[in-house]
Write a structure and sequence with these properties.
6% strand, elongated, mainly alpha, 2 strands
């Protein structure tokens, strides 16, 4: 075993011959410092390369895309509500037709069609 000095805290320690740090806390601290340095360097390069104008343009474009998506989502919700209302109206009309037919024929509702013959005008019909 050799005596080495920890590069983070500066204490001397004896451990395996390939040990660099005295403990796992110092090893983690060194890792975090290296990572923070790399991130700072990349951020600085990005600022120098792209500049603030490009960042503002990208932000404006992203904001516009989000607003477009929200608008489309609201349109789809309104369309879905209208279709549900149409389906409920058709279902109620068919139910009333079955009741009237059953009363007129004196028969049971089981002999009458259950599914409505009229369908709402949806994009796929």
């Amino acid at each position: 075993m050799s005596v080495a000095t920890c590069p983070v805290c500066g204490t001397g320690f004896s451990a395996r011959s390939d040990a660099v740090y005295c403990c796992s806390a110092c090893r983690q601290k060194a890792h975090r410092a290296r990572t923070a340095g790399r991130i700072a360097e990349l951020s600085e390069r990005a600022k120098q390369s792209f500049g603030p104008a490009l960042t503002k343009r990208n932000t404006a474009a992203s904001t516009q895309r989000v607003q477009d998506v929200v608008h489309r989502s609201r349109e789809l919700c309104l369309t879905a509500a209208e279709r549900m209302q149409q389906a409920a109206t058709i279902h109620e009309r068919c139910r009333m037709d079955r009741l009237v037919s059953r009363a007129a024929s004196g028969g049971t509702a089981a002999a009458l069609p259950i599914h409505p013959t009229e369908r709402a005008l949806w994009r796929g019909n």
